[in-house]
Specification:
By secondary structure, this protein is an alpha+beta fold. The protein has helices at 2-10, 34-38, 65-71, 119-124, 166-170, 177-183, and strands at residues 17-19, 22-24, 45-48, 52-53, 57-58, 77-79, 88-95, 109-118, 130-133, 147-155, 191-197. It is built from six helices and eleven strands. The strands form three sheets. It has a six-stranded mixed β-sheet. The radius of gyration is 17 Å and the shape is globular.
Length: 202
């Protein structure tokens, strides 16, 4: 009974309505559980239009949200209100499930890398900084199931500039993320979250 109540509390509903002549479907936003849910640490928010914070949830197929997140929307707002305003941070977005979760031979696919982010900007969601990898929309291949899109936030060391190597700049696929983290001694992320989505035609 407690679990059922928890699910109800976590579910968010968009009521059927008319908005600008467009009929909105009822949506149930399903939260991640188990190992996928445990990936979400601290209150890192990832906010897309209409959907709001998608952290630790499945992208629903209603209202063409899976298509729109892959085809229309640009980079999300990212907020972390626990950020230290005096520090700088690194944000990484990756897909560890390329080309599929069952066979991730091209992991990690780099979707976004931003460094020199001021903690004060993270607090209000105005993400600024130096972009090492431009934002790439989530585009899981057809019939490969759900992909995880992970956001990891690291405290940036002050002793040197962060950059990608020439080899890393050649491709966003099969990224040796662990090598990058070790090279700059980034350690564990201060916060992380993810959402799951799949190809809108599936």
């Amino acid at each position: 009974m407690k679990t059922q109540i928890t699910h109800l509390l976590k579910a968010v509903f968009i009521l059927i309505s008319m908005q600008g002549g467009v009929r909105m479907e009822e949506c149930i936003f399903e939260k991640l559980e188990g190992e996928d849910g445990m990936f979400c640490r601290r209150d890192l928010k990832v906010v897309y239009p209409e959907l709001g914070d998608v952290g630790c949830m499945y992208i629903p197929e209603c209202n063409q949200y899976r298509k729109r997140i892959s085809k229309e929307w640009s980079s999300p707002a990212v907020l972390f209100q626990e950020a230290d305003a005096s520090k700088r941070y690194i944000l990484i977005m990756v897909d560890p499930d390329a080309p599929s979760r069952a066979d991730p031979k091209f992991r990690f696919w780099r979707h976004w890398t931003v460094v020199d982010i001021r903690g004060a900007d993270l607090k209000n969601g105005k993400l600024k900084g130096r972009v090492l990898s431009d934002y790439r929309r989530p585009t899981p291949p057809y019939q490969t199931g759900f992909h995880r899109y992970q956001f990891l936030l690291y405290e940036q060391p002050s002793f040197e500039a962060i950059s990608l190597s020439p080899e890393e700049n050649q491709s966003t696929g099969s990224w040796k993320m662990e090598n990058f983290l070790n090279r700059f001694q980034l350690g564990m992320p201060v916060a992380s979250t993810q959402f799951l989505t799949k190809d809108y035609k599936d």
